[in-house]
Amino acid sequence: MDGTLTPPPLGLYIHLPWCVQKCPYCDFNSHALRGELPEGNYITALLRDAAQAAPEASGRPVDTVFIGGGTPSLFSAAAIDRLLRGLEETLNLHPEAEITLEANPGTLDADRFEGFLKAGVNRLSIGVQSFGDDHLRRLGRIHGAREAIEAIELAQRAGFQRINADLMHGLPHQTLTQAVRDVDQALALGIRHVSHYQLTLEPGTAFHHRPPALPDDDALADIEAACATRLAEAGLIRYEVSAWSTPGEACQHNLNYWQFGDYLGIGAGAHAKMTEQDGRITRTQRVAMPRHYQAVAGTPAAIAEAHEVPVDERLLEYLMNALRLTEGTTVKEALERTGLTAETLQPGVDTAVKEGWLADDPERLQPTPQGQRFLNDLLGVFMTMSTDG
């Protein structure tokens, strides 16, 4: 490795693992709530965890915070306020940090929205998934279409300016008309950021064990194309494979992931990726079970896994995310974030350009439409480089 490794921006991911019930497609570290939510004990554990992680940040500003789950909106506004005030004392939170909280319809009311906003949350990601009652039932969601609409409207009235709507397509028995109708409903509500992703059957989920009837590949392609057209016509720009926004509304926290940025991770099962002062890049994961996590948070026993990213795997890890972005990345940033040299990168670039998967631009690594469509093939070029080492 002859290149210079530049520490990237730093984010913070916080995992709140409980939900009302486990959805059959979900492979996240989420647990159906049994009994009372232990929010006080869990917030205490998170703050112990943050204090232990703080030295890793070395005083660097934390530009973004993402509170995910599970269903973080099960927690009270007072608990979220206590969490954020405690983090301000432990970490160097940027005064204008983007602070996102995931919320699910059916766990929300006007007072809770207002409390979240007052606590410092300035961006919501609402797990709508669909505005069709039949599809919501098949997905195991606890809310209906009316609750989804009301949640967005309540958030808007509470004063939230930045709201993402999660929408899934390729649902069991979903038609093209139904998928487009979901997008139209989100747009009619004034949503300026949509995460529009295809349902996949992940190992370990109920849907993987008992697969539902999903649209075939041709139908999926038609659905994706029709929804993309509708989003573009409404002025939203596709900035990542599954993310659309109006200018200025892109999720900065997720952009940091996709650009191989650093992030601390606290909470049960949370992942972290950090660039060390000596040039190493390390990944860690907290213990996954909530009860165990609460017992050991703030001690070395909270780290379930830790490993260094080998130099010959950095480029592939970087590109697996950066090439999901419509604009791709610059060659300069790729080298700064991985510590590699242009000579290491060039053979793969030459092959990808020849295949028509990357734009022929000496300063950028930007996937062509064909490259986005065949992203795995594009990445395979650089995977071969890593293997050959």
Automatic annotation (TrEMBL):
Main location group: cytoplasm
Signal peptide: none
PROSITE patterns reported for this sequence: RADICAL_SAM
Entry's Gene Ontology cellular component terms: cytoplasm
Domain Radical SAM core, first and last residues per copy: 4-236
Cofactors required: [4Fe-4S] cluster
Entry keyword annotation includes Transferase: no
Compartment list: Cytoplasm
One Gene Ontology biological process: porphyrin-containing compound biosynthetic process
GO molecular function terms attached to this record: 4 iron, 4 sulfur cluster binding; coproporphyrinogen oxidase activity; metal ion binding
UniProtKB keywords: 4Fe-4S, Chaperone, Cytoplasm, Heme, Iron, Iron-sulfur, Metal-binding, S-adenosyl-L-methionine
Keyword match Iron-sulfur: yes
Taxonomy, superkingdom: Bacteria
InterPro entries: Aldolase_TIM, Coproporphyrinogen-III_oxidase, Elp3/MiaA/NifB-like_rSAM, HemN_C, HemW-like, rSAM, rSAM_sf
Role noted for this protein: Probably acts as a heme chaperone, transferring heme to an unknown acceptor. Binds one molecule of heme per monomer, possibly covalently. Binds 1 [4Fe-4S] cluster. The cluster is coordinated with 3 cysteines and an exchangeable S-adenosyl-L-methionine.
Similarity annotation: Belongs to the anaerobic coproporphyrinogen-III oxidase family. HemW subfamily.
NCBIfam families: hemN_rel
Protein name: Heme chaperone HemW
Organism: Spiribacter salinus M19-40
Lineage: Bacteria, Pseudomonadati, Pseudomonadota, Gammaproteobacteria, Chromatiales
